[in-house]
Design goal:
- The protein is α+β, with helices and mostly antiparallel strands.
- The chain has three domains: about 90 residues, no CATH class; about 130 residues, no CATH class; about 150 residues, no CATH class.
- It contains eleven helices and 16 strands.
- The protein has a six-stranded antiparallel β-sheet with strand order 11-12-14-13-15-16.
- Strand 15 and strand 16 form a beta hairpin.
- The longest helix is centred in the N-terminal third of the chain and has 20 residues.
- About 5% of the residues have low confidence.
Length: about 400
């Protein structure tokens, strides 16, 4: 999407400016990079407001025109939230104001950033947002000299921002908000058509805005590396580690009224249940207390296990994956960032997972009738039977971090 024209029109007793954006992509092309399209469209619109505000004439309105087909709902929400009308002059009768979406602009930014982080992890082949951030920030990044690398430049920039926020989010109250755009990065006559814009977003951590966006943009503009990873490393070094963690235990290990616990799936006695412990006393289950579950999930998100494929006879490589290397690897099943990233990495709409004993989680893509799921059931059952401290022989379906249903046991 670029600015095709700046129209100067009569406005009151003087002259005003009408900005016309032109979209030449098809709907499917926009949807293929949906979350990135949302963020780049907001960046275009808000940076243009700043640039036009520097002109002597006032901004009258902004218009968005599709030359091929109607934009997808996600972009219609952006146009509605930013007050940009659909249509093009001089056909004023065809202009259409869009209703404000149910979600405001901050919510649209939040959702887009979260999706970009998940997609970045999948693209980089890891379920660990911190590992993805380090890999991406060490890689050559597209420099913003020309419009030819517009998509690559903004993908790189927004993936760094989204991954940094995803790493910090389990450890603090994190949100994205719209910030005043600073206009183009450089004085370039073609800035409106190229990637010389500044992202009009601010990351707020524990109620205070941080300068992550400016650091990443400065690094991108100069071709430097490591700004986002350095920022996150510094933040993590100073962040306190949560004291409470979740602990998956067998149902008969908890006593109602004495221990705080909740079911993974209601009325499924073969599954482990979620209890809670202190980091310094990992075998002592905690009594009921307010906000215990949220605090424990934040603690589990801090754990950084190893994720690797298993070689299983009769299956294609990388069919079944193992999460291990941390005493809390089983509890990563509860991690709202880690599990969606793992699911995206496996390219599935649903996972089959099992936790036969502490410190391990097995997972595969869950496709009906797939040999991978049958192999996973056998693997989990064998590991359960051989474990010194078994947890569960069950395998269940999960969408992201939401358990759905227990699968039938393996056929003998």
């Amino acid at each position: 999407m670029g600015i095709s024209k700046l129209y100067r029109v009569r406005h009151g007793v003087g002259v005003g400016v009408v900005v016309a954006f032109t979209e030449t992509r098809t709907r499917s092309q926009i949807e293929a990079v949906g979350a990135l399209s949302v963020l780049t469209t907001i960046t275009r619109i808000e940076s243009t407001r700043v640039a036009v505000a520097r002109m002597p004439e006032p901004l009258v309105e902004m218009l968005y025109t599709c030359t091929r087909e109607a934009p997808p709902p996600a972009l219609l929400d952006v146009l509605g939230a930013t007050g940009v009308r659909l249509g093009a002059p001089p056909d004023a009768a065809a202009l259409r104001s869009l209703p404000a979406p149910a979600r405001g602009l901050p919510d649209l930014i939040e959702a887009a950033m979260a999706q970009v982080a998940v997609e970045a992890c999948a693209r980089l082949g890891t379920a660990d947002a911190l590992a993805a951030l380090r890999d991406l920030d060490a890689a050559p990044d597209p420099r913003p000299e020309t419009n030819r690398n517009f998509v690559g430049f903004w993908r790189h920039t927004f993936e760094l921002l989204a991954l940094a926020a995803a790493v910090i989010a389990p450890r603090a109250a994190v949100r994205w908000q719209l910030a005043p755009a600073a206009g183009p990065i450089a004085s370039d006559p073609d800035w409106m058509a190229g990637p010389h814009l500044r992202a009009p977003f601010a990351l707020v951590v524990n109620g205070a805005a941080v300068d992550l966006v400016a650091q990443v943009e400065r690094a991108a503009a100069t071709g430097a590396h490591g700004a986002a990873a350095a920022f996150v490393a510094s933040w993590l070094a100073a962040a306190p580690r949560p004291a409470v963690l979740p602990r998956l235990v067998r149902r008969h290990d908890v006593v109602d009224g004495e221990v705080a616990w909740r079911a993974l799936i209601d009325d499924e006695p073969t599954l482990p249940v979620i209890a809670y412990v202190r980091r310094d006393h990992p075998d002592t289950l905690l009594p009921p207390a307010d906000a215990l579950h949220a605090a424990a999930l934040a603690g589990a998100a801090l754990e950084e296990p190893t994720v690797e494929p298993l070689e299983v006879d009769g299956l294609a490589p990388r069919a079944i994956w193992r999460v291990h290397g941390s005493a809390w690897s089983s509890e990563k099943a509860l991690d709202g960032t880690f599990m969606p990233a793992l699911q995206a990495r496996l390219g599935s709409h649903m996972l089959a997972i099992g936790t036969p004993h502490r410190g391990v989680l097995f997972a595969c893509a869950a496709d009906t009738g797939d040999a991978r799921v049958d192999a996973l059931k056998l693997l989990v059952r064998d590991a359960f039977e051989e474990a010194d401290a078994p947890l569960s022989s069950a395998v269940w379906l999960q969408d992201g971090s939401e358990p759905l249903s227990v699968l039938d046991p393996p056929a003998d």
